[in-house]
Design goal:
The structure is a homodimer.
Chain A (H helix, E strand, L loop, with lengths): L2 H10 L6 H10 L4 E6 L3 H12 L4 E7 L3 H11 L6 E2 L15 E4 L6 H10 L3 E4 L7 H13 L4 E3 L7 H11 L6 E11 L9 H4 L3 H17 L5 E7 L13 E7 L5 E7 L1 E12 L2 E5 L9 E6 L5 E4 L6 H15 L8 H17 L6
Parallel strand pairs in A: 1-2, 1-4, 2-3, 4-5, 5-6, 7-10
Antiparallel strand pairs in A: 7-11, 8-9, 9-10, 11-12, 12-13, 13-14
Chain lengths: ~375, ~375
């Protein structure tokens, strides 16, 4: 126990004789879900972990990193005891650590399955970044592992917990927009050479897997429908060495059971801020930006109603806070997350279908 | 010759001893192309004909209408002599009328081919509204008829002559936007029951043929590429009797030889103001509205350049004026129109491919 941790334990006072006791106590009176962060990349360090700092339901109590020095530098900020810094090799030892309730997996996509399964076997709940994996088979294994360990599995579909997106859902669900006819959406960015996202082995696929998935998922949560047919094209424009294993661009169209159609694009070769536009028989709803960490903006023009415009003035941590806390609620109240493994698997299936129609394959 | 025409001829003065002489004279010194308007619908009466009024290269000298009374009411405004009002039955008599150089065909789509062929046989040039026809076969017949009569055939792709669209083309062509990766576009509207557009026999197809064609055509003129593959879905959401023969919605994706992808939507079931957004490696260009008679607005954000924003302050006649006059130039200078029959036929082929992929057919 280092000095910081000693001080922390001291401050907790005489009530607490063991970490196990602490857990039990917090469970009764405002316990926080104790996350082990798996992967100290940008999304963890800049967003998820700082979000937990301001949470009353979520906290960071451990790290898994390939760079112990990085973990040690970060530990004091989160009051993470050095003993709670794990490597990928000794990861399974989290099983013995009662200060960890759940893992937050923010690794390259190809590692999601392995660490989800290992975490479940270690008795921990799993919040895993999207896309849930790089194959359907892996996704199914993740679901099975969490189910057999009786642990929760949630895929971090941030936007399904974001208030502006939720408002859009509500405006469609309550019939304000009428019957939904057509949706356009795009989401992409210009990826730098050398990033793991450009390596199919690590990423599973290109921009469709990483950012196109936002459009795909949004078309589904906005319509509350599952596409019955998907067709797409995957292409490379820039022969600059970046796109030897994954697509640079993907354009696809979806057909929903109601008859609604959605046409979407994604790219790693151009700036493409996320947007989505929904055309209903009674009006148009659009979000732009639609999927970003901050600044999500909704406009709706509905027949016979004054124009609707909504932004929520939150910073880049807020969506992660809501997400982390939602999962904490699921764990504490034994509630199935709405973006559970099955939800993640659906997108995997649809992406596989888009890739297949484009002459590529998932995995 | 009615009183108005008499006065007009009188005013032309002693130089003119015959209508034929008038034509010859104007050809040398600022002659105007004399259009016979075929079909007195909204687009003719509200846009094309008023545009000719302010032109120094185009004028309306004859009508073809199924409602002679309508023609007679309109005649004075355009100094059209009553003898120059034709019906669909005596249409072929335009061959004998030297006051007609060209026809402007603004009929339901299924009639484009017949009246183009008859006009060509009558020795008249043809400016025909889009879509050029309702089948590939008809389109080919139109091209053949005009070619064998040595008459010009232009399809009225208004936006290919519109200054904001031309600016967009230029920004792409000069490389400002870098390599083009992806395009999103949509164009549609909520069609009223009872319109001829909802009858496949008259329209050939649904919104794809009528308004989706703007997105399709724009993707082609912006990229200067021809799609190599197209995939789409055609659907009906509203079972309210409107969509018994044509689709209500169509979503489709295109793959261009460079690798650029385009994903588009069209509808007759919702408001869907035309927009197009082009993602290049160096920036984003968008037009919204993109295809309307007025108010077309361009925004471009290009790396290392100040933001570009452009609107042109013209009214709803201006684009028709430019189009009518461009065709006049083609006729007078024996120039092939850039939106000739072959250009129209290409869109027909692509729409046929979209329909085919969607389990429908053109014609």
């Amino acid at each position: 126990m280092d000095r910081r941790e000693f001080g922390r334990t001291l401050a907790a006072g005489a009530l607490l004789s063991s970490v196990k006791r602490l857990g039990a106590f917090q469970n009764q009176a405002g316990r926080r879900l104790r996350y082990c962060i798996v992967g100290l990349g940008r999304i963890s360090m800049d967003h998820f972990m700082p979000a937990c700092k301001r949470s009353r339901k979520s906290q960071v109590t451990a790290f898994v990193t390939g760079h112990r020095d990085k973990g040690e530098r970060l530990a004091p900020e989160y009051n993470v005891p050095l003993k709670n810094i794990y490597s990928y090799e000794n990861f399974d030892a989290i099983a013995e650590n009662p200060e960890i309730d759940a893992v937050y997996i923010a690794l390259p996509n190809s590692m999601h399955a392995e660490y989800t399964v290992r975490a479940a076997k270690a008795g921990k709940h799993v919040l895993c970044e999207k896309p849930m994996a790089t194959s359907m088979k892996d996704s199914q294994a993740m679901i099975a592992a969490c189910r057999s360990a009786n642990r929760k599995l949630m895929i971090a579909y941030r936007c399904q917990y974001e208030p502006v997106n939720l408002h859009a859902i509500q405006l469609i669900r309550d019939g304000s927009l009428g019957t939904i006819q057509a949706i356009e959406s795009a989401n992409g960015f210009n990826e730098r050479a050398g990033e793991w996202r450009l390596d199919k082995k690590l990423a599973g696929g290109g921009p469709l897997m990483d950012v196109g998935i936002y459009s795909l998922n949004a078309c589904r949560y906005l319509t509350a429908e599952e596409p019955v047919k998907l067709e797409g094209f995957c292409t490379v424009v820039d022969n600059d060495g970046r796109f030897t294993t994954v697509e640079e661009n993907c354009g696809w169209t979806m057909h929903f059971p109601s008859g609604a159609v959605a046409s979407c694009n994604t790219t790693y070769g151009a700036s493409m801020p996320g947007f989505i536009r929904v055309h209903g028989s009674k009006g148009i709803l659009e979000m732009e930006p639609a999927f970003s960490y901050t600044g999500i903006h909704l406009k709706a023009n509905i027949k016979g109603q004054p124009p609707i415009e909504q932004s929520v003035n939150y910073d880049d941590k807020e969506q992660f806070l809501v997400e982390a806390d939602y999962f904490a609620d699921c764990v504490f109240n034994n509630k199935e997350p709405k973006t559970n493994g099955e939800e993640g698997l659906r997108d995997m299936r649809y992406m596989a279908e888009i890739y297949r129609s484009a002459g590529r394959s998932l995995d």
